[in-house]
């Protein structure tokens, strides 16, 4: 990762598109009213975009005959959703300020608003990103973690982006809102580590609840709540981990692993501490840049110029 060609800064569009941040917030609010789950989905775009060659909107590109994009990568297919919300934001911004606001910046603003609209903190975002001219399914497959990942793997992954153990645990708190598919936890419920048994970290009552939601032979696209308050951004997620009620393996492992356990306990007891750490982590992640050439797309799904082979 490299520094952006032009430094990111707050208020980047204050002169070229003054209503930009208001427009993003307004579309996000309407999307949440229409489908509450959508804002949690949009928030995750920042993670899946920024970790793969920086925050450049590459995640949003559709496949072309010459390019396999990131939407169908292992961590994104049948998982990421609500791309239409970004399309709606872009359409509104193009009407107000044509060719001005990048799709990469839309992802950053929309993620911030998803948190704030569900009861979490609001923060000033740094803007000024350009949109990628290409995307890479292979890069996404090689970088993005599986729901089966353990804390040790996640610590190593985050360290590659100069994100600390504290950043990892705080940013995992994005799972304070939203849902995930049964597909992601079948092994935890019935065959953890090839044992033929459930993950012993499960609270027994919680496991019984999940057994009913995600039975063997059932529809693995059925979803379960990531924490006990899936529409509210709060520290309940961490309280659930302490109680053995983490939905994903990559969540519960944060409490069973010594290096991450203390941060889980702190955030479970102090919501303000979690909020502050989350904002710090989101800002650091939002600064990840590839240094590659870019543009301002007029449609977030396609590059303005001829698609670039990868």
Describe the fold and architecture:
- With 310 residues, the chain is mainly α.
- It starts with 19 loop residues before the first helix and ends in a 15-residue tail after the last strand.
- It contains 13 helices and four strands.
- The protein has helices at residues 20-34, 37-50, 83-96, 103-117, 137-143, 151-159, 165-172, 186-190, 204-213, 236-242, 249-256, 258-269, 271-286, and strands spanning 131-132, 179-181, 223-225, 294-295.
- Ca(2+) 2 binds at residues 227, 229, 234.
- Ca(2+) 1 binds at residues 49, 52, 54, 56, 58, 70.
- Heme b binds at residue 175.
Output the keywords.
single chain; 310 residues; mainly alpha; Peroxidase, domain 1; Peroxidase, domain 2; two-stranded antiparallel ribbon; 45% helix; metal ion binding; Peroxidases_heam-ligand_BS
The total tally of domains equals 2
The helix count comes to 13
Structural class: mainly alpha
- The CATH architecture category of the largest domain equals Orthogonal Bundle
Strands side by side in the biggest sheet: 1-4
Order of helices and strands: HHHHEHHHEHHEHHHHE
- Contiguous uncertain segments of 5+ residues: none
Mean pLDDT: 93
User: Could you give a short account of the major beta sheet?
Assistant: 2 strands, antiparallel
Give the terminus-to-terminus CA distance.
Answer: 19 Å
Shape: globular
Task: Tell me the fraction of residues in β-strands, as a range.
Answer: under 5%
CATH class call of the largest domain: Mainly Alpha
Helix content: 40-55%
CATH topology name of the largest domain: Peroxidase, domain 2
From the alpha carbons, calculate the radius of gyration and give it in angstroms: 19 Å
Instruction: Kindly state the number of beta strands.
Output: 4
CATH superfamily of the largest domain: Peroxidase, domain 2
Keywords: Calcium, Disulfide bond, Heme, Hydrogen peroxide, Iron, Metal-binding, Oxidoreductase, Peroxidase, Secreted
Subcellular location: Secreted
Binding site for Ca(2+) 2: 227, 229, 234
Enzyme class: oxidoreductase
């Amino acid at each position: 990762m490299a520094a952006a060609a032009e430094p990111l800064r707050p208020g980047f569009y204050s002169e070229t598109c003054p209503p930009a941040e208001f427009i993003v917030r307004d579309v996000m609010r309407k999307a949440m009213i229409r489908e509450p789950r959508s804002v949690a989905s949009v928030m995750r775009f920042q993670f899946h975009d920024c970790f793969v060659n920086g925050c450049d909107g590459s995640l949003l590109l559709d496949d072309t005959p010459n390019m396999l994009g990131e939407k169908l990568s292992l961590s994104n297919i049948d998982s990421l959703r609500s791309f239409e919300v970004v399309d709606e934001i872009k359409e509104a911004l193009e009407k107000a300020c044509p060719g001005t606001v990048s799709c990469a910046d839309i992802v950053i603003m929309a993620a911030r608003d998803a948190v704030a609209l569900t009861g979490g903190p609001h923060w000033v975002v740094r803007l000024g990103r350009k949109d990628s001219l290409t995307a890479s399914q292979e890069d996404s497959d090689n970088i993005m973690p599986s729901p089966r990942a353990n804390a040790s793997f996640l610590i190593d992954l985050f360290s590659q982006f100069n994100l600390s153990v504290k950043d990892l645990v705080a940013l995992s708190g994005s799972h304070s809102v939203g849902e995930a598919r049964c597909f992601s936890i079948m092994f935890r419920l019935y065959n953890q580590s090839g044992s033929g048994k459930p993950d012993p970290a499960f609270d027994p009552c919680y496991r019984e609840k999940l057994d009913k939601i995600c039975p063997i032979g059932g529809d693995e696209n059925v979803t379960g709540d990531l924490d006990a308050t899936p529409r509210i951004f709060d520290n309940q997620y961490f309280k659930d981990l302490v109680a053995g009620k983490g939905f994903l393996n990559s969540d519960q492992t944060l409490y069973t692993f010594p290096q991450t356990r203390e941060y889980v306990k702190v955030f479970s007891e102090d919501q303000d501490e979690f909020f502050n750490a989350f904002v710090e982590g989101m800002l650091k992640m939002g600064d990840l840049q590839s240094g590659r050439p870019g543009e301002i797309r007029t449609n977030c799904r396609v590059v303005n110029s001829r698609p670039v082979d990868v």
